[in-house]
Design a protein that fits this description.
- By secondary structure, the chain is α/β, with parallel strands linked by helices.
- It has four domains: about 130 residues, 3-Layer(aba) Sandwich (Rossmann fold), CATH 3.40.50; about 160 residues, P-loop containing nucleotide triphosphate hydrolases (Rossmann fold), CATH 3.40.50.300; about 80 residues, Helicase, Ruva Protein, domain 3 (Orthogonal Bundle); about 70 residues, Orthogonal Bundle (Arc Repressor Mutant, subunit A).
- The protein has 20 helices and 14 strands.
- The strands form four sheets. It has a five-stranded parallel sheet with strand order 2-1-3-4-5, sandwiched between helices. A five-stranded parallel sheet has the order 7-10-13-6-14. Strands 8-9 form a two-stranded antiparallel sheet.
- The radius of gyration is 29 Å and the shape is globular.
- The N and C termini lie far apart (about 70 Å).
């Protein structure tokens, strides 16, 4: 028996009245607000209505087998609305569930899958977990809104990172943010600050690598008048400026050992001493630190204090490199093109599918920083649309795309392919063509031929080829196949 109340709004979708009534009684008995619908179309209308009035449905419980649109088709539709992810947790139920249905439901983003006959406690526990998921997602949306959408990404690694940010943000714990250069460690630090109760206070960034070692103590802790040559007046340090707020020590791995010792003292006592000062000053500062270097190796080499490392590394957060979050590349490309166009007084420019295919294949060793620079350059130098011809040469070659010189022997049609296959039988290998280019040429010609056979009906062509329609669309984009080419 589960006693904790379900404080949430649930929509039950089933064409059987008894099932709807049973679920309503169970869930309302646990404290939930329950709506119901007997068709997927009616459920969509209900979701839209409640979203529009600012009181959205938080969990959908839907049968798989329905008249008209099925539960799985509804889940697909919700995924489209949510740009790749259902906008609310969806629990599917079925009286005759198959393995393929369960697998498809999971792939489409279903939160859970129940089999009939339904068990009361299983339903209550599943809905409770779904409500918690909705609440966690709402916190993420709120966080994203507070940081003005600067963190762009819906990939699994980024969602996992932002969940950790919301949890640690509510605490007073110190955080050590690690990741390669250009991954956005400062944005994560700002997100932790915005998720905390210090959000309305100062957020002070210190680039430890950019401040000369002889000045860093004065910058961090301030100095009294006459403390050294040139100290003509009192100066408050950045720890004082950040009082009641957050200080972000970026690239702390580059801080010298003397300054490390004084930072450690502040962390231990909550007090600092200005250079040339005689009395300690109390400060209430949350410390976040970041580095692209391996602090454990620096500790072993005697270049970083072990005690400071443990003081800072209470909660470690690792920002994933862009190559580990490929699902986000398209979002980031469009986002930074829009920014570049807006900042340079230009109309927004679309990215061609071919250009996007190249950009998503590139590994982005410089991470988000490199991507932003490349997209700004392409936005400025392109015409009304950004195409493959606007992609920088180094990105093209590193992403495995053939340049104009590479493509001179690649056939564009079936007739050219046949001409190519003649010398292949005699000489073994076509001269001047790589294996990759030859393979793509064969695929390109074969797919074009099948598209011509079926009047460029992609659905029928995909069925004839034995592949998913979406897979064929992606393959066409990668190979640069568009209607009207010979």
């Amino acid at each position: 028996m589960v006693s904790t109340a379900l404080a949430g709004k649930i929509l039950v979708l089933d064409d059987e009245r008894n099932i709807r009534r049973t679920l309503r009684m169970v869930l309302e008995g646990e404290g939930a607000t329950v709506l119901d619908a007997e068709s997927a179309e009616a459920a969509l209308d209900t979701l839209r209505e409640h979203e529009a009035c600012g009181a959205p449905v938080e969990v959908l419980v839907a049968d798989v087998k329905l008249p008209g649109m099925s539960g799985l088709q509804l889940l697909e539709r919700l995924r489209e609305i949510g740009a790749g992810r259902p906008p609310l947790p969806v629990i599917l139920i079925s009286g005759h569930a198959t393995v393929s249905e369960a697998v498809k439901a999971t792939r489409l983003g279903a939160f859970d899958f129940f089999e009939k006959p339904l068990e009361r406690d299983r339903v209550v526990i599943g809905v409770r977990n779904a409500l918690r998921q909705y609440e966690a997602d709402a916190e993420l949306r709120s966080l994203r809104a507070r940081i003005r959408g600067e963190i762009i990404g819906e990939s699994k690694p980024m969602r996992a990172l932002l969940k950790k940010v919301t949890k640690v943000g509510k605490t007073k714990a110190r955080v050590l943010i690690q990741g390669e250069s250009g991954t956005g460690k400062e944005l994560v630090a700002r997100a932790v600050h915005e998720a905390s109760d210090r959000a309305g206070k100062a957020f002070v960034k210190v680039n430890c690598a950019a401040i000369p070692s002889e000045l860093i103590e004065s910058e961090l802790f301030g100095h009294e008048r006459g403390a050294f040559t040139g100290a003509t007046g009192l100066k408050r340090g950045l720890f004082e400026v950040a009082n009641a707020g957050t200080i972000f020590l970026d690239e702390i791995g580059d801080m010298d050992l003397s300054a490390q010792a004084k930072v450690l003292r502040v962390l231990q006592s909550g007090e600092l001493m200005r250079v040339g000062g005689e009395r300690p000053i109390k400060v209430d500062v949350r410390v976040l630190a970041a580095t692209h270097r391996n602090l454990k190796e620096l500790v072993a080499a005697g270049e970083f204090r072990e005690d400071l490392y443990f003081r800072l590394n209470v909660v470690p957060l690792t920002v994933p490199p862009l190559r580990a979050r490929g699902d986000d590349v398209g979002l980031l490309c469009r986002h930074y093109v829009d920014i570049a166009c807006r900042e340079n007084g230009m109309s927004t420019k679309p990215l061609s599918p071919e250009a996007m295919a190249v950009l998503t294949r590139y590994a982005w060793p410089g991470n988000v920083r490199e991507l932003r620079n490349v997209m700004e350059r392409m936005a400025i130098l392109s015409d009304s649309q950004i195409g493959v011809e606007d992609v920088p040469e180094d990105v093209l070659s590193a992403s495995g795309c053939a340049t104009d010189a590479d493509q001179q022997d690649v056939p564009a049609s079936t007739s050219e392919l046949v001409a190519l296959l003649g010398p292949l039988g005699q000489d073994g290998i076509p001269e001047g063509m790589s294996l990759k280019s030859f393979r793509e040429a064969v695929e390109r010609a074969f797919i074009r031929q099948r598209l011509n056979d079926y009047g460029w009906n992609v659905s029928r062509t995909a069925e004839a080829l034995g592949v998913e329609r979406t897979h064929l669309h992606k393959k066409m984009k990668v190979l640069g196949i568009t209607r009207g080419q010979s």
